[in-house]
Design goal:
Layout (H helix, E strand, L loop, with lengths): L2 H8 L8 H10 L2 E5 L3 H4 L8 E2 L2 H5 L5 H7 L5 E5 L3
Parallel strand pairs: 1-2, 1-3
C-alpha cells in the first residue's frame, strides 16, 4: 500500500461487519481475522483462529506485520478486531 492510500485509510471510517457475517466469511476462507489488541489484552481471551498482531507493531516498526502482509493472499479480506 502506498503512503497516500495508507494516510487516507487512517482518516476514513472502516466498514463494520456483524459477528455472524464475519464468522461466515472466516469459515468460508474468504477472510482472516486479525486481533490488533495488545498482548496484555489477549490474556482475557482471543477469538478462535484469530491472527494476533498488535496495533502498536503496525503503527511502529512492523516487525510482525510485514511478514504477515507479505505472505497474505491478496484475495483474502482482513477483518480487524480491536477492543476500542
Amino acid at each position: 500500500m502506498n503512503f497516500l492510500k495508507m494516510l487516507r485509510a487512517l482518516f476514513t471510517s472502516a466498514p463494520r461487519c456483524a459477528p455472524d457475517e464475519c464468522g461466515a466469511r472466516i469459515r468460508s476462507g474468504a477472510a482472516l481475522l486479525v486481533d490488533v489488541r495488545e498482548p496484555d489484552e489477549w490474556v482475557s481471551g482471543v477469538a478462535q483462529h484469530a491472527v494476533l498482531l498488535p496495533f502498536s507493531d503496525l503503527a511502529g516498526r512492523r516487525i510482525r506485520w510485514q511478514p504477515f502482509l507479505a505472505a497474505h493472499p491478496p484475495d483474502k479480506e482482513l477483518l480487524v478486531y480491536c477492543h476500542s
